[in-house]
Structures are given as structure tokens and as C-alpha cells.
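Researcher: Watch the backbone:
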Amino acid sequence: MDVDAPLFKWSTIVFKGNDSHQNEELNVKQKQQSTDWSGPLQPLVDLAMINFNAAQRCAEIQSNFISYLLDANLKQLQALADTKDPKSALTSQLAFIQAIDSRWCDTAEQEIETARDVQHSITGILEKSIQDAALPEAFSNPLLKH
């Protein structure tokens, strides 16, 4: 036995996947399957994108409010530390609380507006999907198509 000779000859291996005709048929089937499901599942993708965008918007609104709140608290604390008169400190604190309350209400209104937009978008997609007759047919018996 030759020491330098390979134990196994790679040239004798025949892979079933190397046939170009089989690869083409497989690619055609995969494209057909993806188009079969992309239409009926598009409303679900749209719903997911609407929810994703709404979550991003709410996170942005809350992040902005928290940044404002922290900044305003630091400024108010510094203003209270510099104030010598208790009456002006109390007046300043009341004005600060009113400003925070107003900003909090604005933030809540923005979040409610975002929720309403999401509700209208989802309702529109659901109404369109219910009216679409192809949707129930697509899921009636998917195994027959494949």
C-alpha cells in the first residue's frame, strides 16, 4: 500500500444535488411556493410592520419625555438650591409641577394618537382581508397545492 495514496478517492463521489436540471426544478418550486404564500400572508406582514413602527414611536415618545423629565428635575433642583426665600421656592416648585404635568399630558396624547393610528391601520387591513375571497381559498387546503 502506498503511503502517499489517499484512502478515499473524492472523484468517485457522485452528489445528487450536482445535477443542474434538479437544481433548476428545485429553484422553480421554491419560487412558486414563496409566491403561493406571499399573497395570503402579506396582511400579517403588514400588521407586524404596523406594530413594529408603533412600538418604535411609543418608545421614542417615552424616551423624549424621560430625557425632558431628568433635565427639568436637575434644573429645578439647582433652582431650588439657589433660592433663599421659602415662598419663592414653593412658587417655583408649583410651576415646575404644572410644567411636568402639562408635558406628561402631551406625551399621553401623542401615545393615544399613535394607538388610534394603529387601530385604524389594522382595521383597514382586516376589513380588506375579510373582503378578499382569495384568502380563505389559500388556506383551505394548502397541501393540495404542493
In short: The CA atoms of residues 33 and 64 lie 44 Å apart.
